[in-house]
Amino acid sequence: MASDTSMIDGTTAVLPSRPRAADQRGVTVWATLRSFRIDIFGAIGLVLLVVFWWGLTFVVPRSSLPSPLNVFRRIADDFVVADMLSYYGLPETGLMGSMAYTAANVLIAVVVGGLIGTVLGLFAARVPVARAISDPILNTVGTIPILVMAPFFLIWFGTGRWSAVLLVTVYVLVILYLFAQRAAENLDPVYESSARTFGAGTGDILRDILIPGTLPQVLGGIRIALAGAWGLEAIAELLGAQQGIGKIIEVLAGSLDIEGIFAALLVLGIVAVIADWIAGALVRYVTRWSVSARVGTT
Amino acid sequence: MTDSSQGKPNDITFTDVTRTFVRGDGQEVTAVDGVSAHIREGEFVCLVGPSGCGKTTLLQMVSGLLPTSGGAITVGAKQVTGPGPDRGVVFQKDSVFPWFRVIDNVEYGMKRRGVPAAERRDIANRYLELVSLSHVARAWPKELSGGMLKRVAIATVFANGSDVLLLDEPFAALDYVTKHQLHDVLLDLWRSTDAPRRTILFVTHDVDESLLLADRIIVIRDGRLVDDIAIDATRPRDVDTLTRPDMMTVKHKLLAHLGLEHGSRRSAAS
């Protein structure tokens, strides 16, 4: 029954003939993997990277490059509490707790920066006066390398949570301002015209046209901003913070603990990849009506 | 000029309608120049003219999406000041909202007018059935072909109960077969309406399309109304209708207006 071309049930591929039972199983497994967006070649690449890393440890001295096994063991050891770090007076020494602190900061920054940036961007795209005011400001902020602002934020807001959060918020805000503005400009005016002929007012158009119509590109921007936010948050913590995964790296760097740094970086990387995967799945679901399967492309 | 207060609910009166644009180089261009006409209630009128003649501008002014520069347009007893649900528009581009499912698109106009949910779902389902799209009610617009999307747009304006329908080259981008199928869909819906028949203003540059559809063809050239031809043929019309001598005379006339007829003065003057 699956052999007919159906535009309606969402399948775009044309199956030439009904697959035989033996093939069916392989196809099903493959399809399941595809549906979870697990790329087999990506997994193979990851394994190859670890093997290459492990191979390198036979050439490079251990003090410069720890072996993968030791790093994995270190992650397990330091996951809840890291004894080595208890001398430094950190409020949180475990990798899990530090990562949670960093992740919470990233989440706050992406949500707050994303909301403000999107609202400003949509507003600027539709109200020329607003744009005349906001464009020069945000374009200037966007041109400054964001890390240059870090020392100012540290001076103004101290080494607590909020200077790092603010730095990442500004970064996310500027990206989303541009994405939302461009999305609103690219939205075909025929939708707004059509809504108006049905008697839609400004509020209706915002809710029924502008927000859903720009959602794919805005969420694509959120994903790009999220990917960059992890690194920025870690660096902000490295430059001055009480805790977080970046702070852990800074302390370990002071004691030349390469293995510990690798462990912290690996945890950060894994969390960032998982977060992107979840965000991607959410975006795909919310914008499943969109013609382009890939989002985030402009 | 007739007093507009005497107008029937669905008729359209153009009174010396003018529209000027200022081009990028600062020069003023007159797109519509002093058009006066009266479209009767329930009439199917095609606006025909060469590209850039102002026919789409005229339609946009009836929809209220574009203000007039001079003169007035009256629909029923009311002067047009902005868009409103009494005038439904089918655009040339696909205007079906991609982020709503098909059924929600068809309901959209009724939702804005505050029709209760159950009632508007019934009406939307009925019109989807009339355009043979019941099976895709829950589909996303991206899963539909161009012709199907036009059916959705037509079902939407009919379901919304607009007295006046404005169609702006709706089938220009469709293939020959689909276009002819949609002519039938449109005419069937228009003719089967139990209420007073809706007034249709249909912009096209396709001469055969206008001859197949219209009660009356208004020719616009350089922003002016240059001809107003009544079509005296019963429906349904087919290929044979178009080859009748009287229809051929009209066709020659229209082609002459579009500048396509060689030695056209003779036929156009008849």
UniProtKB/TrEMBL annotation, chain A:
Pfam families named among the record's database cross-references: BPD_transp_1
Chief location: membrane
Annotated membrane topology: Multi-pass membrane protein
Annotated InterPro entries: MetI-like, MetI-like_sf
GO cellular component annotations of the record: plasma membrane
Annotated ABC transmembrane type-1 domain residues: 95-279
Compartment(s) of residence: Cell membrane
Transmembrane segments: 40-60, 99-125, 137-156, 162-180, 261-283
Protein name as it appears in the record: NitT/TauT family transport system permease protein
Family label: Belongs to the binding-protein-dependent transport system permease family.
CDD domains in UniProt: TM_PBP2
Gene3D superfamilies xref list: MetI-like
From TrEMBL, chain B:
Keywords of this entry: ATP-binding, Nucleotide-binding, Transport
Boundaries of every ABC transporter domain copy: 12-247
SMART domains: AAA (SM00382)
GO MF term (any one): ATP hydrolysis activity
Residues annotated as signal peptide: none
Xref: InterPro entries: AAA+_ATPase (IPR003593), ABC_transporter-like_ATP-bd (IPR003439), ABC_transporter-like_CS (IPR017871), ABC_transporter_ATP-bind (IPR050166), P-loop_NTPase (IPR027417)
Family membership noted in the UniProt record: Belongs to the ABC transporter superfamily.
The protein, known as: NitT/TauT family transport system ATP-binding protein
Organism: Bauldia litoralis
